[in-house]
Amino acid sequence: MSHLHILTEVFSKPWLVEAVTHGNIARIVGQRAGLIPVEGRMPAEGSCGEEVEQDEMEIIDGVTYIPIGGVLARKTTSFERGSGVVDYEDIREELRIAEEDDEVVAIVLDMDTPGGTVGGCIETADVLSDISKPVVAYTSGMICSAGYWLASQADKIVATRGADIGSIGVYCAFVDISEYYKKLGVSVELFTSGEHKGAGYPGTSLSKKQRQEMEASIMRIHEQFAAAVQSARPQVSSEIMDGRVFDAMQALELGLVDDIVSSRADAAKLALSLANS
């Protein structure tokens, strides 16, 4: 993903991510691109800021553990490993390897993610729903937004007591920097073939119709998100798909998770029991 593509993804595309994380990403990307003044401290862990340790896929006693820790995105080649970004393609490839390995009988998704981009999420969720081996999604941190879309396609979801679950929703953060450009003496003019072409270009403002189309697009994605969750987990009410994040006990009561566990080992035991049954 080039720097231009990163700017486009962050500032004009819908996201499936917990809001604070996206705000951190937007500030970092905007500052590095010169679009946002540098003020205060840069955000830290898990937000494309400081380096964080990335785990590797591993197989133990017939269970494949696939780590999904960080912001989810597609075509992340411009990010160094340890940047706190996980590529959807890497997840799909590791699922393929686990599915084809005869020594693997079950899969545990070891998750701690605030969510990420829409692009790549739907395709990865589709791959997950087609896996023939038992899949258990586990977290001791958070499974939010795009992360929950993926987790909902697993056979079971389990979490430790301190985990956060949910943030089912979609949004697009359009940053209008036209006034900032004016202060710099920069004027942006767009010559387009249609009213919606060029919507969101840096230095411009959205028209009323462009805003309406952006809102409609977000609602279409949300409908797909809700449908995917409820097709796999019909017990989850549409009333809680409003962006709220729940603690693990609330999530259990609401049907977002299936059980509260103490560790990843408990998730592995559940996955093996599903395989044996």
Lay out the secondary structure.
Layout lengths: L2 H10 L2 E3 L1 H14 L25 E3 L2 E11 L11 E3 H13 L5 E12 L3 H10 L4 E10 L1 H6 L4 E4 L4 E3 L11 H6 L24 H25 L12 E3 H6 L5 E2 L3 H13 L1
Parallel strand pairs: 3-4, 3-5, 5-6, 6-7, 6-8, 7-10
Antiparallel strand pairs: 1-5, 2-3, 8-9
Helix pairs in contact: 1-2, 3-4
What does this protein structure show overall?
The chain has about 280 residues and is α/β, with parallel strands linked by helices. The chain has one domain: 2-enoyl-CoA Hydratase, Chain A, domain 1, CATH 3.90.226.10. It contains nine helices and ten strands. It has helices at about 5-10, 20-30, 90-100, 120-130, 145-150, 180-185, 210-230, 250-255, 265-275; strands spanning about 15, 60, 65-75, 85, 105-115, 135-145, 155-160, 165, 245, 260. Strands 1, 2, 3, 4, 5, 6, 7, 8, 9 and 10 form a ten-stranded mixed beta sheet that branches. Strand 2 and strand 3 form a beta hairpin. Helix 1 packs across helix 2 (about 20-30). The radius of gyration is 20 Å and the shape is elongated. The protein starts with a helix and ends with a helix. Residues about 40-50 and about 80 have low confidence and may be disordered.
